[in-house]
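Q: My labmate handed me this sequence with no annotations at all. I'd like to see what the chain might look like in three dimensions before we decide whether it's worth expressing. Could you predict it?
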Amino acid sequence: MRTAATPTGSVPRGGPELPPAPLLGPAPSAPSRRAGWQAFGLGGGLALLLALAWVLTTIEVQVEIDGRSQTLRTRAGSVGALLVEHRIDVAAGDLVIPGAHARLHDGDHVVVQRARPVRIHVDGRLIRMHSHGRSAQALLQEAGVRVAPRDGVKVNDRIWPLDQALVAALPAPGPERQGRHRLSLVRAAEAAGLAQAEPSIPEADLSEPIDGPPGDRSPWEIEVLRAVPVTLVEDGVAVELMAAGETVSEGLASAGFSILPEDELIPPPESLLDGGMRISLRRALPFTVYTADVSQTLRARADTIGEALTKTGLALIGKDYSLPAADSPLVSHMDVEVIRVLEDVLVQELPIGYATETQSDPNLMLDETRVLRAGESGLKTQRIAITYENGVEIDRQLVEEVVLREPVSEILAYGTQVVWRTVNTEEGPKQYWRHLRVYATSYSASRSGTPKSAPWYGRTRLGWPMRRGLVAVDPRLIPLRTNLFVPGFGVGVAADTGGGIKRYHIDLGFDDDNYESWHQWVDLYLLEPLPPERDMTWILP
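A: Here is what I predict for the chain of 541 residues:
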């Protein structure tokens, strides 16, 4: 609205009317800028006052809808007005806590719980309803369905014995929260302004929710399974039962009989349950299996140990065996040891030693040798069967041996030319034909280890009475009856042998009353005469 024209030089009370500022062009003058800021200041202050008035005249309310909470600000004075203001839809059967006509205050808590669809299958009928009942018992009572003590109830595909099913709680609308008003149960329709009422809704105090997370409105499925009489024969013992369920396994479960996967049930567990039917139950037997260092307790329905091991995935294969044996009867809680037998074949190459062929050479002196032909080792392969029990080798057998290369024998010439030499003894110079370096010990009749009661006590191998000068030797090296000389011992005769006298070991004989202890290496001279050629050791070991 424009003001009337004024005389030149006069200014209206509201100030001059300013033309609109151009989008482009020179900046407005200082008086124009001051007028614009004044107008902006008045408008901003008004907006701030309005916002402050809105905050001061609204309250904050916590609203929970089917388990989901949000905070709302409102100027509504009642719960019903709050629902209308924020367009929260409610329908017949829904609950609002507190009632629709309850006054609202800052910080109040409002709960909206929508009714849950329920389908009840009973006696060939389907009952559809919406309810706030929180247990199977409440829902069945609300639907007017009667159940007998032996009947079963299936809730969302889970079967319960009757006494448990009736208290299996469905999820509650949420914990009650105390505000400034008493919380009450009302029909949601009353939130739209209908007469307030507080219906009595049966509730179960026990928990164990059977549906999904908050906000899930999928229907609850409840099925009443009427009990029927059946005969259960468990391990030969017959029992009359009242069972409720769609299948044999459900019926036995409702009667308190648990069926394990290893048990045998005839008819099978998934068979339809029918009144008057005869059910055979054969329980699997528990037993403990030990394999190497591992033990495990298993169950099997079997007559023998071998059959039980096969059914539990531990079958005896090949040469495996068990203790007790596989054909032994299976007894409950028995211990069974399984021995795994593994046979392996080892293939190896081995050298074949060559033999030595000897021939005398009169042109060589005694104890001299000469190789006429060098020996060569052969080569062979062997196949060896090795048997393991639980990883431990217990046997190996040679299965096959193949010679790849035959050995070549060595030919050795030995000397037979005896050169006589002289050694000084206590009895004077003696001729000897061989000199050896040996280890000497000593003994006497009482120190020989022969009991005095033995008929050969005090007798040598040649049957001579034991005395000083008789020497025990290895006859493969020194022929018996050979004269010999040991410095410090004297001249003696090889007349005895002994179990511990081998090769370059001799035992010097003494009388019991003049015994001397010897433990040392000594020189041994073999004296004349030369032994017979048949007893001669031409090649020393």
